Amino acid sequence: MICLILLSLLCTLFLGSNFDLWKQQHSNGSVNHNTKKFGQGMEDQELLNFLLRRLVRGEDRIRLEATGLACHSDLHTGVCVSNRPVRIDTRTLKIYASFNRDMPQAIRIIQPYARKGDATAMSFVSPVQILEGNFSPPACEYAHNVPAVVFSSGGFTGNLFHEFNEVIIPLFLTSRRFQSRLQFIVTDFQLGFVRKYSRILSHLSRFGTVNPALNGSVHCFPGAVVGLHYHGNLALNATGIPGGYSMRDFKKFLKESYNLKKVKLSEKERPVLILVSRPMTRTFLNEREMVKMMEELGFEVVVATPHKLSDLEKFSVLLSSCSVMVGAHGAGLTNALFLPTRAVLVQVVPLGLDWVSTNYFGGPAAEMGLNYLEYKIKPEESSLLSVYGRDHPVITSPASVFLKGYKAARAVYIDRQNMSVDIVRFRVTLVKALGLLGRSATLLEESVF
Ligand SMILES: *[C@@H]1O[C@H](CO)[C@@H](O)[C@H](O)[C@H]1NC(C)=O
Ligand SMILES: *[C@@H]1O[C@H](CO)[C@@H](O)[C@H](O)[C@H]1NC(C)=O
Ligand SMILES: *[C@@H]1O[C@H](CO)[C@@H](O)[C@H](O)[C@H]1NC(C)=O
Ligand SMILES: *[C@@H]1O[C@H](CO)[C@@H](O)[C@H](O)[C@H]1NC(C)=O
């Protein structure tokens, strides 16, 4: 019996199957295989309630039970959950949740995008109103039997890092447990975004997305989630809300969504190296020499711009069989999510960008199961040296420039810096990468010559 319980617990943890957990909890151990499909009767409301409850904790959960509406709020995101019927008027972005004649009126305004503290991002995110209490909701025009999940595709979408960081990973965290039985309502609808991630969206929901701008009507749902949970830069924290999902689960989900096969890196004759080539800023000015050196080390080099690489339909297969990814700090490195386990991510860190490099990609790379190497640019390799001179604080003390304000620092280090990489020094980093792959540079070099 204990074994059975342990086994089912393990299944729940590793397969993320809460449906079974729920069934177990509600059938005293004997799994009932005749459980009706979600969306077809009374017990579904119970399952739905179970899944929605997971999205809030502590006092919020008590409030959800008592009133049918509760909101979680932290530094980065706001998420409101209703486990009772809601009506969503997509013309006004008003959500009638927990409407009840006996309760005083309360209106909550939420911008369903996970970068609350960033005024620039939030200026592209429409507010949604959630009405609670003594309101008379409009009549339903469409009735759905699954809950709604409302989120914005505004904000910083268009940038691969922000798309994964603020939308795709939060969406996975918030909605994966519902096993596709939910309806997405995408505010600030960006057709390009919805098309680009159609595989991911269709793996998370079996229904098409509703674009409020095109579908001005009143939709009724048995429950709703407004806004998405967020765990930090490209992070999935298995103990955060709603719990249970790690980066490993997310990578598995990506593989499933894009039909990617497992690749054994050691079986490749020449390891593939993707060089992320930025054309405008943080550009490698001596890219050709870099490629030559990489090829001499035995790599098969693919040079691609971040824009090209973000066509995941096209590049996910290549990415998933690639041994090394090299790139300067920037959104293109987000593609590392598709690299196979134990591949090597080499981040070239421009002058002044140590902190963002480590926090946005270095830390997450370890969670992704990757080997991570940093190559820090020296003043002699940065285009900033000839602009400012060796004794300028821009060169000698980037931290002091950041202290004066992010905007000014960004204009210098992020937007106006190119690099000429020292080939001899950089080669050492790539030899290290080969070592991490269990290969030796010399052998490969011999096979080339
Ligand atoms: C589970 O067990 C409890 C107590 O023994 C009982 O009251 C309940 O009806 C059982 N539930 C199911 C679904 O069998
Ligand atoms: C609006 O949404 C409903 C329900 O999802 C759907 O049946 C209808 O075709 C949509 N209308 C338009 C114009 O998209
Ligand atoms: C994960 O979430 C838990 C609970 O919210 C928190 O205590 C912990 O610090 C988080 N871990 C990380 C690495 O953020
Ligand atoms: C960086 O390199 C790119 C591509 O060569 C160029 O367009 C841009 O002007 C350069 N920026 C600076 C600040 O030199």
Automatic annotation (TrEMBL):
One of its GO terms (cellular component) is Golgi membrane. Keywords: Glycoprotein, Glycosyltransferase, Signal, Transferase. It is a single-pass type II membrane protein. GO terms for molecular function: pentosyltransferase activity. This is Protein O-linked-mannose beta-1,4-N-acetylglucosaminyltransferase. InterPro entries: Glyco_transf_61_cat, Glycosyltransferase_61. Pfam families: Glyco_transf_61. Residues 1-16 form the signal peptide. The keyword Transferase applies. It is found in: Golgi apparatus membrane. Residues 248-346 form the Glycosyltransferase 61 catalytic domain.
